[in-house]
C-alpha cells in the first residue's frame, strides 16, 4: 500500500480498508458509549461536505471549528478537507474577543459551534465579523436566527443530488502543498499568528509517527486533548484513522479517570499535567495508608526505578532485583494499571516538559510514557522516544525525514517536510522563523547527545539572565517544585534582577491536611497561607526539591498565591503554558515588594 500524500488519502484509504469494522470512533451519549462505524462516518462526512457546498463553500475558503472534542469535530474536518476548504481550529476555551481576532484574521466564511455556550460567544461578536456568512450548530439546541444546525445541513447535503464519485475524485486531487488547516499559536507574547499547515506537512508527520510508534489496528485510544491543538489533531485524529485505531472521545478532561475505566484504551496521548496529577494522587494514597502500606509503596517504587535505571544503562538486572520487581508489581503497580483500564500499552507525552522522576515511576509501573517534542509550526512532532529507542530525560530522536541541529547559541533548529508553509499574511514573521536554508528556529534551547537524543533545556525567551550575568533555565526548576505534594504550580521570575524569585500555588487540600495535623487554626485559604508556620513549610518544600541546583539558580524569595493561573485571566495559553510576562504584570506590585525586602523569608498574598 503506497504511503498517503494528503489527509484526504488518509481518510478515504481508511474508509476503504476498514469499512467492515463496527467502530471507527465512540462517544458517550445518554450514559452509554455509542459506536460510529466507518460506513456511518463516511456517510456523515459525505453529506456534510455536500451541505457545505450547497452553502457556497468551495476550495480555498476557510471554515472555523469552535468545539470541544466530539465526533462532529472529526466529521466537519474531513468534510472541509474533501471540499478543499481549509479549516480554522479554535480552542473552545477562548473568550469572544480572541475568537473574533482569529475569525477576522483568517477570513473564515463559516464557523461550526458545538453548544449554545459557544454560539453565544459568536453572537456576541457577530457584528464585528464582516467575512462570516454562516454559523453551523452541532447541537439541536443551537438552532435560531442565522444558525443552521448540523442535522439540517446533513439533510440538505443528502437531498442535493451531488455526484458522489465526482466528489471523491475532486477530494483526491488535493495536493501536498495545499493548506489544510490554520492553527493559531497560543500567543505567549503578542497576538497569535495563523500557522498554515499543508496536507503534506501533517501527512509526513503521520507517516513518520506510525513508522516509530508501533500502533496496531486492534488498539483503542482515549481522546481528550483539544483537537484544536496540533498534537491531538495529528496524533490522536489522523494517525489513529490511518492506523485503524478506535477513537473514544472523553466527555471532558475531568471525566478522564472514569472514562479510562469505561473504555479501557490501549494508547493515551496527553500533556504532562495528567501524569503529574496521577503521580500526586498515587503518592497521596501511599502517604495516607499507614506505615506498612507506605513502606511497601516506597520499597516498590525504589525497586522498580532501580530496574529501569539499569535497563536505561543497558545493564543486566540481577535475578534477586528482578524477582523484587515482580513482587512490587503484584503488590503496587497492578493497582495503578487497573486505574487506567488494565489494557494500556503506552502513554505519549507532549506539549510541555515531563519530569524525569515521573517518567521513571511510570516506566517502573510498566506504564511507559514516550515523551516527544514539537511545535505547531512543525506539524508537530520533531522527536519522540520509542520502545526501541528510549532515554528518559530526553524527548527522543528525530523521526524519519526530520533533521535537527543546534545553533551556536544553543537554539534547536529543524528542517524537513513537517515545517509549516508560513504564518498567514505575515511574511516578515515567516522569514524570521524559517531561514534561507529552510531551518525553522524553534525558540527552544537544548542539546543533542552522541546517540542523537535531544534534551530540551528551556524556551530561549524564558531564560532568566540575572543582573550578575548568570543564565538560569526556569522550566526544570519549576517542574521539580511541582513534584511536591504541597505544590500545584510554580513560576520562576527574575530576568535582569539581582536574584530569582518564585511564585508558588499551594495544593490547598494537602496543605490544609498538614495544618490540621499540626493543630493550626485558620478560617480560609487566605488565612492559611498567612500563617508563619505554613509559609515556612512551603519554603522548605520548595527548597527541598532544589537541592542539586547551583546557588545562583535557587530562588531567594517565594510568593504563595491564593489562586492558580488561568486561561480566563490570560495567564495561561489554551495549551496550559504559563504566560510569564502576563503573570509578572499581574503580580508586579507584590514582586517589587519581594525585591524591596531583605533576603530570606516568604511573603503571603491574600489574592486578587
Task: Give the arrangement of secondary structure elements.
Elements: H1 7-18, E1 25-29, E2 32-36, H2 38-54, E3 62-66, H3 71-83, E4 86-90, H4 96-106, E5 110-113, H5 116-125, E6 134-137, E7 147-149, H6 150-158, H7 164-171, E8 179-184, E9 194-198, H8 199-213, E10 220-223, H9 230-243, E11 246-249, H10 256-263, E12 267-270, H11 272-287, H12 290-312, H13 319-339, E13 346-349, H14 356-364, E14 369-374, E15 381-384, E16 397-398, E17 403-406, E18 411-415, E19 422-423, H15 427-433, E20 440-448, E21 454-459, E22 464-465, E23 471-472, H16 474-482, E24 487-493, E25 501-506, H17 508-517, H18 525-528, H19 532-544, E26 557-560, H20 580-586, H21 588-596
Parallel strand pairs: 1-11, 3-4, 3-5, 4-8, 5-6, 6-7, 10-11, 10-12, 12-13, 13-14, 25-26
Antiparallel strand pairs: 1-2, 8-9, 9-19, 14-15, 15-16, 17-18, 18-20, 20-21, 22-23, 24-25
Walkthrough of the structure:
Helix 2 crosses helix 6 and helix 8 (199-213) packs across helix 9 (230-243). Mean pLDDT is 93; it is low at 601-608. Helices cover 40% and strands 19% of the residues. The protein has a nine-stranded mixed beta sheet with strand order 2-1-11-10-12-13-14-15-16, with helices on both faces. It has an eight-stranded mixed beta sheet with strand order 7-6-5-3-4-8-9-19, sandwiched between helices. A four-stranded antiparallel beta sheet has the order 17-18-20-21. It starts with 6 loop residues before the first helix and ends in a 12-residue tail after the last helix. The chain is α/β, with parallel strands linked by helices.
Amino acid at each position: 500500500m503506497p504511503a498517503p500524500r494528503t489527509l484526504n488519502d488518509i481518510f478515504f484509504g481508511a474508509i476503504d480498508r476498514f469499512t467492515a469494522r463496527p467502530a471507527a470512533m465512540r462517544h458517550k451519549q445518554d450514559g452509554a458509549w455509542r459506536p460510529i462505524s466507518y460506513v456511518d462516518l463516511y456517510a456523515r462526512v459525505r453529506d456534510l461536505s455536500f451541505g457545505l457546498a450547497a452553502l457556497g463553500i468551495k476550495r480555498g475558503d476557510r471554515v472555523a471549528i469552535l468545539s470541544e472534542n466530539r465526533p462532529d469535530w472529526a466529521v466537519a474536518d474531513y468534510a472541509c478537507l474533501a471540499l478543499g476548504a481549509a479549516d480554522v481550529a479554535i480552542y473552545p476555551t477562548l473568550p469572544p474577543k480572541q475568537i473574533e481576532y482569529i475569525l477576522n484574521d483568517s477570513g473564515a466564511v463559516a464557523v461550526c459551534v458545538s453548544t449554545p455556550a459557544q454560539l453565544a460567544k459568536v453572537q456576541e461578536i457577530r457584528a464585528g465579523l464582516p467575512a462570516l456568512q454562516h454559523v453551523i450548530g452541532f447541537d439541536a439546541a443551537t438552532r435560531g436566527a442565522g444558525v443552521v444546525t448540523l442535522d439540517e445541513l446533513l439533510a440538505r447535503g443528502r437531498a442535493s443530488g451531488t455526484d458522489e464519485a465526482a466528489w471523491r475524485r475532486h477530494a483526491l486531487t488535493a495536493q501536498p502543498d495545499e493548506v489544510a488547516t490554520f492553527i493559531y499559536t497560543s500567543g505567549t507574547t503578542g497576538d497569535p499568528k495563523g500557522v498554515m499547515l499543508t496536507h503534506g506537512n501533517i501527512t509526513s508527520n503521520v507517516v513518520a509517527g506510525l513508522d516509530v510508534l508501533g500502533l496496531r489496528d486492534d488498539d483503542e485510544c482515549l481522546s481528550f486533548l483539544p483537537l484544536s491543538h496540533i498534537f491531538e489533531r495529528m496524533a490522536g485524529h489522523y494517525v489513529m484513522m490511518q492506523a485503524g485505531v478506535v477513537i473514544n472521545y472523553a466527555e471532558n478532561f475531568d471525566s478522564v479517570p472514569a472514562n479510562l475505566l469505561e473504555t479501557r484504551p490501549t494508547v493515551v496521548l496527553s500533556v504532562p499535567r495528567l501524569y503529574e496529577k496521577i503521580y500526586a494522587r498515587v503518592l497521596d494514597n501511599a502517604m495516607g495508608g499507614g506505615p506498612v502500606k507506605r513502606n511497601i509503596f516506597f520499597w516498590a517504587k525504589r525497586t522498580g526505578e532501580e530496574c529501569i535505571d539499569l535497563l536505561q544503562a543497558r545493564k543486566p538486572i540481577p535475578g534477586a532485583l528482578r524477582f523484587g520487581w515482580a513482587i512490587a508489581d503484584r503488590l503496587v503497580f497492578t493497582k495503578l494499571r487497573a486505574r487506567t483500564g488494565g489494557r494500556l500499552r503506552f502513554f505519549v507525552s507532549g506539549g510541555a516538559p515531563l519530569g524525569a522522576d515521573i517518567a521513571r515511576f511510570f516506566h517502573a509501573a510498566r506504564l511507559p510514557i514516550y515523551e516527544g517534542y514539537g511545535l505547531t509550526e512543525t506539524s508537530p512532532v520533531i522527536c519522540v522516544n520509542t520502545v526501541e529507542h528510549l532515554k528518559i530525560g530526553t524527548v527522543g530522536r528525530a523521526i524519519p525525514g526530520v533533521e535537527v541541529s543546534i545553533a551556536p547559541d544553543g537554539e534547536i533548529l529543524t528542517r524537513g517536510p513537517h515545517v509549516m508553509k508560513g504564518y498567514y499574511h505575515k511574511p516578515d514573521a515567516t522569514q524570521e522563523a524559517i531561514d534561507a536554508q529552510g531551518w525553522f528556529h524553534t525558540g527552544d534551547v537544548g542539546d543533542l547527545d552522541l546517540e542523537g537524543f535531544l534534551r530540551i533545556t528551556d524556551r530561549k525567551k524564558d531564560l532568566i539572565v540575572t543582573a550578575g550575568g548568570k543564565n538560569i533555565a526556569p522550566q526544570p526548576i519549576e517542574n521539580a517544585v511541582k513534584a511536591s505534594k504541597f505544590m500545584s504550580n510554580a513560576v520562576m521570575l527574575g530576568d535582569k534582577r539581582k536574584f530569582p524569585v518564585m511564585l508558588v500555588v499551594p495544593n490547598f487540600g494537602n496543605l490544609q491536611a498538614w495544618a490540621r495535623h499540626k493543630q493550626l487554626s485558620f478560617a480560609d485559604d487566605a488565612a492559611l497561607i498567612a500563617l508563619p508556620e505554613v509559609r515556612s513549610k512551603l519554603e522548605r518544600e520548595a527548597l527541598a526539591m532544589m537541592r542539586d541546583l547551583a546557588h545562583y539558580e535557587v530562588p531567594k524569595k517565594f510568593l504563595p498565591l491564593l489562586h492558580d493561573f488561568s486561561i480566563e485571566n490570560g495567564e495561561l495559553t489554551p495549551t496550559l503554558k504559563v504566560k510569564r510576562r502576563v503573570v509578572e504584570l499581574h503580580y508586579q506590585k507584590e514582586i517589587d515588594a519581594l525585591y524591596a525586602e531583605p533576603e530570606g523569608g516568604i511573603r503571603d498574598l491574600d489574592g486578587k
